[in-house]
Amino acid sequence: MTQLRSFTFRRADAADILQVMQINLETLPENYPEFFFRDLLNKFPESFFVAESEGKLIGYIMCRMEGGISNFSISWVRKGHIVSVTVLPQYRRRGVGTELITRAINAMAECYDAKEVILEVRVSNTPAIAIYGKLKFSQIRTIRSYYRDGEDALLMAIQTANSH
Ligand SMILES: CC(C)(COP(=O)(O)OP(=O)(O)OC[C@H]1O[C@@H](n2cnc3c(N)ncnc32)[C@H](O)[C@@H]1OP(=O)(O)O)[C@@H](O)C(=O)NCCC(=O)NCCS
Fold first, then answer.
1. For atom 37 of ligand 1, which residue has the closest CA?
2. Distance 75 CA to ligand 1 centre (A)
3. pTM for this one?
4. Which residue range forms the structural domain that includes residue 52?
5. Using a 6 Å cutoff on CB, does residue 63 contact ligand 1?
6. Percent of the chain that is helix, strand, coil (3-state, to 5)
7. pLDDT class for 18, splitting at 50, 70, 90?
8. What are the tens digits of pLDDT across the range 63-100?
9. Domain of 141: which CATH number?
């Protein structure tokens, strides 16, 4: 458990899931059934983090591991996939997103041997594209009509400290 100004970061546990789902519903158009959140927590507990302020959850990040062709070389690699990350609007621009994403990247490299971390982001999501760019993610390619409403996704990826 560590603190960033008035925020606390820790791994999520099962008792957090309903609050995590509430934050997801309030802030993202991609919503999932409860079993989806619980399944990710059960399978990849080391890379599911929450941020708290005054005892209340204000953000989370959840991820999964998968294999695939590298985005940086011609090889098969273990990839960490950021499935969902969000911060409540009133707590944004204070470093919480950066801390959640950085923790998840490090955890997937250290605990699950991820060589790369990937994510999809809506092409219109300027704040998210900005934060990933600042964290040195590369823009790999556009995935046409990735989202249910037809919007394209930008696939972004970064190599972890384990990649060499
Ligand atoms: C994306 C998101 C998680 C960022 O969280 P955050 O806590 O505000 O991020 P940070 O405070 O760590 O921002 C770090 C940097 O990212 C960039 N950034 C973040 N929000 C930005 C915005 N609205 N416009 C431009 N740049 C932005 C800035 O460079 C910022 O650094 P700065 O504040 O020193 O300028 C947050 O905007 C969010 O929850 N959005 C809705 C959910 C979402 O879109 N999730 C991503 C789906 S792929």
1. 127
2. 32
3. 0.96
4. 2-159
5. no
6. 35, 35, 30
7. very high
8. 999 999 999 999 999 999 999 999 999 999 999 999 99
9. 3.40.630.30
